[in-house]
Each structure stands twice: as structure tokens, then as C-alpha cells.
Amino acid sequence: MGNIYLVGFMGSGKSTVGKIVSKKTGMDFIDVDQLIEEKERKKIREIFKEKGEQYFRAKEKETLNEITSKKNLVVSTGGGLGADAENMKKMKQTGLVIWLDASIKTILERTKNDTDRPLLQQPYEKIKKLFEERKKIYRMADEHIKVDGKTPEEIAEVIIKRWKYIQE
């Protein structure tokens, strides 16, 4: 059985929904950002500050390479990992890629008190531009779920139904 990869912008609910899907399916859950923080023994904001975004993106690719060699995982990707065409292709080859599509309004509301996301600590126009750029790659996902107004449990149920349908 392949993996389920959740992609989407920061704050779209990938980790929250991923944990629910994992629990309901019995598949193991992996949060790529958390894995990188554990390996580096630093928060992502510290990695960005000390080594830069390019270093962090290389760590994402390295971590994704390790994950794609395994099966039966629910994977929460970082917002930038799923916005890279090469990463998207690799995920699609080893599982089902689901884009959790939240509006910019929803994202900003969910992340307004979050200081751990370096790319959200910039002016609104820059965030909106990044959001629009990333959506171009997110659209390559196998499945697309609009998450505004839905609970994490409702989104997880949609993912599980689609996953079961594909497995039949």
C-alpha cells in the first residue's frame, strides 16, 4: 500500500487532518517539518535564521527521499515541500497526493498568533504572492479538497473515502 501525502499552504490543516487519518486507518503518521526539527535539533525558524531557506529546502528533499522509500504512511508535508514540482512528482509516484486548499483568509486567521512560521512574518502582499505561486504546483495533486468551513474530522472522512476507493 502506498502513502497518503497531504500538501497545502501553511495553516491548511495538514498535520491536524493527517493525525486523524492516521488514527482512523491505522497507517503511521509522519510530519516532515517535525522530522526535520528532530534531526536538526532546532526549530524551523532557527534553521531559516541560521542556515537559510535553501538549506531547509534541501533538508526537505532529503527527508522526502527517505519517506518515499516506505509504505503505508500518512505524510504531512511542509507548505513549501508540496509546492516543488520535483517533490510533487516523487510523491505522486509513491502514493496519493491530496491538496488541502484553504483560502488565504482562513490561513491568516488560523496562523495569526503563530510565530514559528518564518515565511508568515512578512507583509500581507508577499504572503499572498507566495500563496498564489504555490497553488500552481499544488494543483498537480491527485485530489483537491476545499477545507474552508469543514472540520478536520469531515476532511479526514473525505480523504479516507477517496483512499479506500482507490485501493479497491
Q: How would you characterize the overall build of this protein?
A:
The chain has one domain (3-167): P-loop containing nucleotide triphosphate hydrolases (Rossmann fold). The mean pLDDT is 90. The chain is an alpha/beta fold. It has helices spanning 14-25, 32-40, 44-51, 53-67, 85-94, 104-111, 124-138, 152-167; strands spanning 3-7, 28-31, 73-76, 95-101, 143-146. Helix 1 crosses helix 8 and helix 2 (32-40) crosses helix 4. It contains eight helices and five strands; from the N terminus they run E-H-E-H-H-H-E-H-E-H-H-E-H. It has a five-stranded parallel sheet, with helices on both faces.
Write the layout of secondary structure elements.
Blueprint: E1 3-7, H1 14-25, E2 28-31, H2 32-40, H3 44-51, H4 53-67, E3 73-76, H5 85-94, E4 95-101, H6 104-111, H7 124-138, E5 143-146, H8 152-167
Parallel strand pairs: 1-3, 1-4, 2-3, 4-5
Helix pairs in contact: 1-8, 2-4, 3-4
